[in-house]
Amino acid sequence: MRSVVLFWYYRQRSRLAYRRSATHLRQGNLAGAIAAVTQALPHHPYPAECYALRGLAHWKLGDLEAAIADYDRAIALDPQHVVAYGNRGLVRYEQGDTARAIADWKQALHHQPHYATAHYNLGLHYAQQGDYDLAHAALTCAIRANPNLATAYYHRGNVREALGDCDGAQHDWELAVSNDLSLAAVKEKLMTLRQARHHARLSAAVQATLPAGIQAQVRHDGSQLTVTVHRDLGVPINYFTLPNQVRAALITLGLSEVSRFQLVGYVADQTRPEWQQYYDLYRDVPCPPSYWPLALWTLLLFPPFGVLAMVYAAQVRSLYRHGHYPAAVRASNTVRALLVYSRAGVIAIATLILGYLSLSLLPGIGPRPHQETPRSLMPRGPQGAAGWRSRERLATSAATSSSKPPASGEGVTQRGKWGRRSR
Questions:
Q1: Which of 23, 154, 174, 294 lies 20 to 30 Å from 281 when distance is taken between CA atoms?
Q2: What CATH number has the domain bearing residue 263?
């Protein structure tokens, strides 16, 4: 009995030492973690876990040989210890032994095919080697095994960017940020990608207005656009009419935060510009219509929307005079939109009313005429209904209390739990 108690005591003490070692490791006390887990080794029920934990502490201390030795012992005790295989592969990869590292990761996947860390490490290795197809496949397996692995989304986005799939890269980076908001590198990549797409959209809008032989690039910096045009040698260009072409192309994009643009022109491969000038983006642009008649129609059709339409119509010219042309355009468009919504609301209400009237005219569905409910005849007297009921109860009690047997065919009335019943 004493030996059983001692065995239980030493085992519990080993488990406590193991938990203490894990706490030291999380707190960065690596020496304390190694000492505690070494104390837990003799009596711990799962010594392979102790060796794997001590191997991790040795690895963080920089003692790679001791880490590999502990991982070897853990694998010898538990040949299916996938964490020991995975960490030993990382240590070997750090030592430059890439082949044996890959073998360890594949062995871990042999024992546990959905081990996300092994797939992730293989994906990073393939990406560093430039084998993006294998890297994409490995990182996809890691994400399937652990859909919350933010770094896997980040690196798969990098792989997709290298493969030319910018949409897929943006999608992966957005998923990475949604799983881990602290990934600053992902946020920077997303910002760069969105800015590049914005510049490409602006450049395409300006390029569509230019003749062949002239290329345009547009950059957006705060409240200013920089439009750079390159013309081939021998291709003519009119820098006096070109600003109006650029202005007409940019106004349609509705850039509310932009007030001016800079036009810079180059010829062939020269590094010095032949033209450089600033222009107001919305200069000489006519004021958008206020649509007062539409606002009045909206007020007549649907007053709640009509009040809003009147307010927006009154703001159009005020915004235009203060230089807020995009806001004036939005106010003008809102007046028209409110008229459309009011028409739709009136049509919907009229449809409901007509539908109700049509249903009410159908036979058997409409409201029924009121029918008079017949009243029971009660004897008139000073006691009224109460007196009638009392006399009825007296007659019934007298009949039931009589000892005279009933005549043939005469019913016997019984009062029980569920009320009167005849038999």
A1: 294
A2: 3.30.70.2960
